[in-house]
Amino acid sequence: MPEPLSPEQALSLINICPIPLLVLDHKGVICACNPAFTNMTGKSKYDELVGHSASSLGEHPLAALLGTGKQVSWTGANAQLHHYEVHRSKTAGETPLEVRYFIDVSRQLSLENSQHALREELREHTLTDSVTGLLNQRGVMLALEPQVARSRRYNSPISVVTFDVLGNSNNDALRKLVAQQLKDQLRWADLVGCDDKQAFVLVLPETSKDAALQLSKKLRTQLLDVVQNKFPGEDLAAYFGVTGWQRTDSAASLLKRSSMALDQARAEHNPQPAAI
């Protein structure tokens, strides 16, 4: 067994350690710290720290470094905000001490934030749903806007159908199957996509609301038959919401009203398409 370090040796190691270290007694009073810690806090004098506890510091910012949190933020002498992970260990003996050391994770957090921002930016610029390959809500909106402008110019009808086909398992596989059926069955002029709630969206140019209702009833029967054959025993439900273009509509209001119609059908557990 190696011989234990003497207090002088331990203090020497603490002083040369490049990581900010703080030593607290069993009452939470600072009994030692190293130069890296005084540099971190901007306190040039050792005596300004030793002998203090969280209670004696009161509202002083240094009290945060003596708290129980696993992370702490601190504005250093360079006026830059740094983020630290706080790690703790106990020494052996009758009067154990707590050694607390602070790992600067500012760069790591900055990189994580940058990656998150990039992912969000990519998501905003992506136009397709990752599961079905159909247009996502942003893609549907961009494709619908010129259709609405055309309806406004020529006073021609346009309808939007929003619907769900729900099962008790295999959700992604079910959505892929429904998406493929939509691609195969609908005419080239129809626009197919998904909204942010993973419901399917059909944009039907030159189609009145009444015609869209009839199409929805037919489509519901066909889709349930196909899905039931593919997933026998699946507990299925399908709800449809339908709306038609009005003179004051924008692409956003048209999609919103169709989604509201779907919500109404779901709430009423109505197998028939709901129209608004």
Number of domains as seen in the coordinates: 2
Radius of gyration: 32 Å
- CATH topology of the largest domain, by name, is Alpha-Beta Plaits
What is the percentage of strand-forming residues?
Answer: 15-25%
- What is the average per-residue confidence, as pLDDT, rounded to a whole number? 87
So what's the oligomer here?
Answer: single chain
Q: pLDDT under 50 segments (min length 5)?
A: none
How many DSSP H or I helices?
A: 8
Per the principal axes of the C-alpha atoms, what is the gross shape?
elongated
Characterize the main sheet.
5 strands, antiparallel
CATH class of the largest domain: Alpha Beta
Q: What is the H/E string?
A: HEEHHEEEHHEHEEHEHE
Percent range of helical residues: 40-55%
Category by helix and strand content: alpha+beta
User: Based on DSSP secondary structure assignment, what is the total number of beta strands?
Assistant: 10
Q: Would you give an account of this structure?
A:
This is GGDEF domain-containing protein. Residues 156-276 form the GGDEF domain. It comes from hydrothermal vent metagenome. GO terms for molecular function: diguanylate cyclase activity. It is a single chain. It is built from eight helices and ten strands. It is of the alpha+beta class. The chain has two domains: 7-110, 2-Layer Sandwich (Beta-Lactamase), CATH 3.30.450; 127-275, 2-Layer Sandwich (Alpha-Beta Plaits). The strands form two sheets. The protein has a five-stranded antiparallel beta sheet with strand order 2-1-5-4-3, sandwiched between helices. A five-stranded mixed beta sheet has the order 7-8-6-9-10, sandwiched between helices. Helix 8 (251-268) links the parallel strand 9 (237-244) and strand 10 (274-275). It is elongated. The model has no long low-confidence stretch (mean pLDDT 87).
